[in-house]
Amino acid sequence: MFTKMQDGTPDDWAIIGAAHREHFYKTPSHLMDMLRSLKDITGGFACDQLQHSLMTATLARRDDATDEEVAIALLHDVGKSVNIPNHGPIAAELMRPYVSDAAYQVIYNHQHFQGKFYYTFMGENPNMRDDFLKESWYDLAVKLVDRWDAPAFDPEFEVDSLESFEPLLRKIFSQPGRAL
């Protein structure tokens, strides 16, 4: 085994590739842990971010969303477990190897779609979603934000349990390259 990448051989990289593949199956568990950590973050909202994420996904599930849509609804704010201001791009990058490009773009840009409801109060342009009108994923972003995400801040709403979403996360996030 090499000690500098420049000295790697095809055999070395085959060993490394196999070792990396073993970790693919850990992604759903890591995502579950990240979601659990959102229980400690309220960010000034009426409910914690785990409740918000579960409510968003529960609304999507009850709206007969696809598996991928339910998954991105659940995980859209998971990046807040790392960094709140940059949470959309963080969440999108975590999901990128596993979801369609449309889903990736929706999560990456979802905050600009939410801005319709609050950017005015923050001194920003509330119409930033209009910059994406011609994108193929625009309607999915509107659906995610307007139907599932924006209404999902009720601490009394009876959400589906985090554990009820685990099989879906295992289905989608156990093997990269899976675009639904």
Mind sketching the topology for me?
Layout: H1 10-24, H2 27-37, H3 49-62, H4 67-75, H5 87-95, H6 101-118, H7 138-149, H8 162-173
Structural features, described:
The chain has 180 residues and is an all-alpha fold. It has one domain (26-173): Hypothetical protein af1432 (Orthogonal Bundle). The protein contains eight helices and no strands. It has helices at residues 10-24, 27-37, 49-62, 67-75, 87-95, 101-118, 138-149, 162-173. The N and C termini lie far apart (37 Å). The mean pLDDT is 95.
Q: Which terms would index this structure?
A:
8 helices, mainly alpha, 180 residues
Short recap of the structure:
The chain has a single domain (26-173), classed as Hypothetical protein af1432 (Orthogonal Bundle), CATH 1.10.3210.10. It is mainly α and 180 residues long.
| Succession of helices and strands | HHHHHHHH
Proportion of residues in β-strands: under 5%
Task: State the CATH topology.
Answer: Hypothetical protein af1432
Given as residue ranges, the uncertain stretches (5+ residues, pLDDT < 50) are none
Question: In the residues, how many domains can be counted?
Answer: 1
Span of the ends, CA to CA: 37 Å
CATH C-level label: Mainly Alpha
The largest pleated sheet is described as:
none
Gross geometry: globular
Number of strands: 0
